[in-house]
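Translate structure to sequence.
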């Protein structure tokens, strides 16, 4: 396990007012309610992300925007005692809840949860086999910088999965911004390419009346020095 850099990392440009901000930066008792709601409503999307990650025993896995840690704990169980999970979130309330959810795994050295922003990750270069983010890309104030950071902390050939809630062809629902889901995925694809990722697949899976829009990326398998 890598020791985090000193101090918590804040996120720039975050709107701290209004109820919508509780989903981008949950805090206080309203934030705890928002986190529990997100954990319940994100179940299918998190499942799609775990499937796309192609998790293997012993993997090291990073979740960006881990919320209360529900999916992170499932990932830790899937990769087994030889694996390691790290979760980051810039909400202090989310970090506290996730640490409570994974407390015994943290105690056994199988997990860590840190307060950090996506564009300033407190990890060593090439530390993770895989990383994922579910319904959090829209809250990254600097997505290009965040994807450059993710490329840095992933190993050569590492996999990144970004999942967004999206409206399907047979629904006009804009629940939680679903109408903009595919637009966010397209922006993620463009930013990931610029950060050096290879696009493996862009697909979708049913998620009730909506769909999970899924983008799968990989870092180059090796670096060729010129």
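Result:
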């Amino acid at each position: 396990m890598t020791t985090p850099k000193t101090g918590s990392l804040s996120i720039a440009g975050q709107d701290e007012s209004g109820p919508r901000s509780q989903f981008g930066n949950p805090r206080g008792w309203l934030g705890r309610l928002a986190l529990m709601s997100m954990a319940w409503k994100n179940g299918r999307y998190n499942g799609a992300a775990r499937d796309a990650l192609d998790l293997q025993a012993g993997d090291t896995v990073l979740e960006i925007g881990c919320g209360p840690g529900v999916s992170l704990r499932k990932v830790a169980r899937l990769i087994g005692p030889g694996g390691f999970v790290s979760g980051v979130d810039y909400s202090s309330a989310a970090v506290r809840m996730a640490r409570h959810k994974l407390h015994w795994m943290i105690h056994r050295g199988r997990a860590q949860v840190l307060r950090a922003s996506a564009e300033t990750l407190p990890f060593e270069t090439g530390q993770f086999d895989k990383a994922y983010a579910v319904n959090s890309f829209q809250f990254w104030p600097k997505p290009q910088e965040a994807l450059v950071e993710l490329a840095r902390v992933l190993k050569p050939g590492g996999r990144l999965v970004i999942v967004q809630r999206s409206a399907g062809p047979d629904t006009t629902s804009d629940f939680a911004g679903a109408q903009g889901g595919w637009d966010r995925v397209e922006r993620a694809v463009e930013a990931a390419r610029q950060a050096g990722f290879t696009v493996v697949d862009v697909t979708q899976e049913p998620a009730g009346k909506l769909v999970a829009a899924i983008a799968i990326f990989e870092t180059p398998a090796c670096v060729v020095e010129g």
